[in-house]
Amino acid sequence: MVHTKLKGVIVPLITPFKSDYSIDVEGLKWLVTYLIENGVNGLFVNSSVGEFASLTLDEMKTLGKIVLDTANNKVPIFAGISTNFTEGSISLGKEFKDMGADFLVAMAPYFFKVSERELLRHFSLIAEKLDSPIIIYNIPIYTGINIPISVYKTLVSQYSNVVGTKVTIDSLIYLKKLVRELKEIRKDFAVFTGFDDYLLPLLSMGGDGGVMGLANVLPRLHLEIYRNWERGEIDNTNWIKLLELTEIYDYCNSYTASIKAAMRALGMPIMNVTRPPLDTCNEESVRKKVNEFKNWLVL
Question: Which of 166, 183, 198, 226 is catalytic?
Answer without folding.
Answer: 166
